[in-house]
Amino acid sequence: MSGPGGHTARPHLTADLVYASARSSPRCPRHCPGGFDPRASLSLVWGRVSAGSVANAIPDEGMAEGTVPLPRRRGLHSAPDLLKGLIDAVANSYGVNAEVNYQRYVPPTVNDQASTAMISSAALDVLGAGSVVQTPQSLGGEDFAWYLESIPGSLARLGTPGARHGRVARHPPADVDVDERAISVGVRVMAATAITALWDDGAIVAQPLPGVTSA
After folding, report:
1. What is the pLDDT of residue 208?
2. Would you say 178 and 162 are in contact if contact means Cβ atoms under 8 Å apart?
């Protein structure tokens, strides 16, 4: 963002870029205009907002960086124009110019129903009841999503937290200690999945897991 800066003693001669930056950092689901599919759950999450360096001067430039997690493919291509229009509308109302640089990275990870049922069934066969659970949807980006754009597949998580140390980390801390016993579990599940995929009748994957829906 950019605008005429100046001394805080004469704010009427400036554009309040800091306040405009703060106002341009909303959670988009509360501000999405008509025409955007609400099922896309578009959100804009800021990770860095920077403007100014001293207390008594209004800056003339500022920057905000963030991510746009999309749990589904709906809205993937319309998100850049939507966000630019939203940010421009807020910034312009305070006399500030906004330049939006939207970079598209990995698409949403959307698992195939049959593939999910296949790996789940294989895991249950080799690990037993209670070994497979459905996890809450994550908004993290995964390179694996590129494979799912081309071929059916399923991304599964392998439990590796250091529970033996009395804690389960929600994200990798600096002193992360992976339980290496999970390696053999992963190998067994992947081998069983490969064998399951080679079965001729395919009956084991005829039905998706309960509660699993397509995007």
Report:
1. 43
2. yes
